[in-house]
């Protein structure tokens, strides 16, 4: 493991996927190099704008053809990551793909298929760490997204590491977090002590760990409002216009600049002649922003019944927000809608205030569409502002103002009295400008030149979890229900680090993954290796192995002659001709045999022979000795050796009969074989059983 640890996160949103690369010192190095003050801080996460890449569209568009998500989408993102993560650190680098709103609306079967393809493709094409796809590749709920965003904002602002420097009063030192995308909006904040105690069951318990291993614990309220993102809200707004005048072919829209025209279908989306049936309805802009504000207000659905008081938007419970101590930062659309066009009007201001913002929006939205088009052509509002952005911004601004002030209850700075002596907290953000967090709300994009993204919060949690616990009693890093100990729904960040040894082959890396289909292949591989090894070990060793296996599996008792035939015999080196294991039994004529000593320890380890023979050793089948000469041809031979040959015939070595006939049939072979044996050779007949005894000497 090197000095640096790396992490890669793919933020799979509804409109596209963005890859983020982060790095931090490994925990051992961090502790060795940290000052006393740094030991009490969270790991320092680094990133670079060159390490970020986004492509369109989102992975949710691959629901009907999931097999294409790898080569057509992920390949570009993973290739980008591999360019910036050192090659030797890739196997040590965790990879996450966390999907948000776009994937949440996919049918479950399609969602599962896309996620599986993501994991399989990443494992096949890279060596990034993916030990558990259920943890590393998943669709996260809006609440988790909001919690990660809260963690990222407070991490960058210093609320965790320097609580004294961010004292907001009443013992409060963290910031609230607001996020708004196209489909949903999130809020996350730590309530004051009174509200935290009153609504303890509604809070999420978050545990972190500093570099020295000390625990950090926070209780945060998080909720999400589905359908309250800017695009979904605009769609609901247009549908309300259409329902108010059914059948109309043209309708006035106060949220469009005067003279602007947009055609929509019955669902409130832009009309597409190739997809939509019938005729669309044309919306004609009137440029009356105050009326736009008024007509967007009902979309907050504040009239819905509140089952658990207090509630803010859509009848969803939220603990009371104490704006004396809860200072919020807003990202995504909160930033873009206040800065993309209107930044010029308040670039020198210290922060957002309602009066200045509303004035700037009124001035822009009251212009005619023709004048706005001329300004776009001259880059009056910057190169990023095009016609589509200009058409959308008036409704977005009205929606943001409604959500902030009438929905969440943020005081209207510049008009309303804040009713309290707010502590001023200064922080360096965006371009080194000093901006005060006296205001209850501040729109930000970067803090200290680092983008405020929920992906950063995820990586802070992961890096924190890699720090060794000071004792076995220390509680794990992660988050879950606000309960003592480790609740049932506790989510671990996946930070159990195991260094890559660099010795395993690719098949070994992936062999024992959670895919059970790979295990049978491994067993087959082991069986093939065993069979090959068995066939190459030689006939003598095979016999010894069979005898040991026989004793191991209880094949004891009375020995017998057993016949081996057929395919199994051929497969394991046994001949099709019947062969026998010769074991002496009680009552057999064995007085003329002398069995040699036998040892289980093999001396054949260094033999070059197929059978593993060595010079000076018998084959295990010893020839009996005949002490008298051979009779002349045609003369009956009478000797005690005749009994011995008869015994051999009885043992299956040949048919019983006259000794002379036996010599005539096999005498030459016997003499030749005998000489080879006496010379120290080790040769035995192919079909004969083997026994260890002194060699039989044939006298010519």
Automatic annotation (TrEMBL):
Alphabetized Gene3D superfamilies for the sequence: 3.30.420.40, Exopolyphosphatase. Domain 2
Membrane-spanning ranges: 519-537
Family annotation (Pfam families): GDA1_CD39
Record keyword Transcription regulation present: no
Keywords: ATP-binding, Hydrolase, Membrane, Nucleotide-binding, Transmembrane, Transmembrane helix
Biased composition range(s): Basic residues: 680-694
Positions with a binding annotation for ATP: 182-186
Lineage top rank: taxon: Eukaryota
GO MF annotations in UniProt: ATP binding; GDP phosphatase activity; ribonucleoside triphosphate phosphatase activity; UDP phosphatase activity
PROSITE patterns noted in UniProt: GDA1_CD39_NTPASE
GO biological process, one term: UDP catabolic process
GO CC, alphabetical: Golgi apparatus; membrane
Active site: 145 (proton acceptor)
Residue span of region Disordered: 584-635, 670-700
Tagged with keyword Aminoacyl-tRNA synthetase: no
InterPro entries: GDA1_CD39_NTPase
Recorded family membership: Belongs to the GDA1/CD39 NTPase family.
Annotated PANTHER family: ADENOSINE/GUANOSINE DIPHOSPHATASE (PTHR11782), NUCLEOSIDE-DIPHOSPHATASE MIG-23 (PTHR11782:SF121)
Protein name, entry field: Nucleoside diphosphatase
Species, as recorded: Trematosphaeria pertusa
């Amino acid at each position: 493991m090197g000095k640096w640890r790396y992490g890669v996160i793919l933020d799979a949103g509804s409109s596209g996927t963005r890859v983020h690369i982060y790095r931090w010192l490994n925990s051992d190095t961090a502790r060795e190099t940290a000052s006393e003050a740094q030991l009490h801080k969270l790991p320092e996460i680094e990133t670079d704008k060159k390490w970020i890449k986004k492509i369109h569209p989102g992975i949710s568009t691959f629901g009907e053809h999931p097999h294409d998500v790898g080569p057509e989408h992920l390949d570009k993102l993973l290739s980008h990551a591999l360019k910036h993560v050192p090659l030797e650190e890739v196997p040590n680098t965790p990879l996450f793909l966390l999907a948000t709103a776009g994937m949440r609306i996919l049918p479950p079967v399609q969602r599962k298929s896309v996620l599986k393809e993501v994991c399989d493709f990443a494992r096949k094409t890279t060596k990034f760490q993916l030990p558990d796809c259920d943890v590393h590749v998943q669709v996260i709920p809006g609440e988790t997204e909001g919690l990660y965003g809260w963690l990222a904002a407070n991490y960058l602002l210093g609320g965790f590491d320097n609580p004294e420097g961010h004292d907001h009063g009443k013992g409060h030192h963290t910031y609230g977090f607001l996020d708004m995308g196209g489909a949903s909006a999130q809020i996350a904040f730590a309530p004051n002590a009174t509200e935290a105690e009153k609504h303890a069951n509604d809070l999420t318990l978050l545990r972190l760990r500093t570099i020295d291993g000390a625990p950090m614990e926070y209780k945060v309220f998080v909720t999400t409002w589905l359908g309250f993102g800017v695009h979904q809200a605009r769609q609901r707004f247009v549908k309300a216009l259409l329902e108010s005048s059914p059948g109309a072919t043209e309708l006035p829209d106060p949220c469009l600049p005067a003279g602007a025209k947009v055609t929509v279908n019955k669902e409130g989306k832009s009309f597409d002649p190739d997809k939509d049936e019938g005729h669309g309805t044309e919306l004609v802009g009137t440029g009356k922003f105050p009326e736009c504000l008024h007509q967007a207000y009902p979309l907050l659905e504040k009239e819905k019944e509140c089952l658990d008081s207090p509630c803010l938007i859509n009848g969803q419970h939220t603990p009371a927000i104490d704006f004396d101590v809860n200072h919020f930062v807003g990202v995504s659309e909160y930033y873009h809608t206040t800065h993309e066009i209107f930044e010029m009007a308040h670039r020198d201001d210290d922060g957002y205030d309602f009066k200045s913002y509303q004035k700037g929006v009124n001035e822009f939205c009251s212009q005619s569409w023709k004048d706005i088009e001329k300004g776009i052509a001259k880059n009056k509002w910057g190169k990023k502002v095009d016609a589509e952005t200009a058409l959308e911004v008036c409704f977005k601004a009205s929606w943001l103002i409604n959500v902030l002030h009438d929905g969440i209850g943020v005081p209207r700075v510049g008009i309303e009295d804040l009713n309290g002596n707010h502590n001023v907290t200064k922080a360096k953000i965006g371009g080194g400008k000093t901006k005060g967090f006296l205001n209850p709300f501040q729109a930000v994009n970067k803090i200290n030149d680092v983008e405020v993204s929920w992906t950063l919060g995820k990586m802070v949690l992961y890096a924190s979890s890699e720090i060794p616990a000071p004792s076995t009693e220390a509680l794990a890093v992660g988050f879950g229900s606000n309960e003592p100990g480790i609740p049932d729904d506790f989510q671990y960040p996946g930070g159990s680090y195991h260094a890559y040894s660099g010795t395993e082959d690719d098949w070994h890396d992936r062999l024992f993954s959670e895919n059970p289909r790979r295990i049978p292949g491994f067993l087959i591989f082991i069986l093939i290796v065993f069979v090959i090894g068995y066939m190459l070990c030689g006939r003598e060793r095979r016999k010894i192995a069979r005898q040991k296996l026989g004793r191991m599996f209880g094949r004891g008792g009375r020995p017998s002659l057993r016949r081996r035939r057929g395919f199994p015999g051929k497969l394991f080196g046994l001949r099709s001709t019947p062969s026998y294991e010769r074991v002496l039994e009680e009552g057999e004529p064995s007085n003329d045999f002398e069995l040699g000593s036998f040892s289980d320890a093999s001396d054949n380890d260094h033999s070059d022979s197929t059978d593993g023979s060595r010079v000076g050793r018998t084959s295990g089948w010893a020839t009996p000795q005949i002490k008298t000469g051979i009779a002349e041809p045609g003369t009956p031979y009478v000797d005690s050796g005749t009994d011995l040959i008869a015994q051999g015939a009885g043992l299956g070595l040949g048919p019983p009969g006259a000794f002379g006939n036996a010599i005539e049939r096999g005498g030459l072979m016997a003499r030749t074989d005998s000489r080879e044996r006496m010379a120290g050779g080790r040769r035995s007949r192919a079909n004969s059983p083997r026994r260890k005894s002194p060699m039989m000497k044939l006298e010519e």
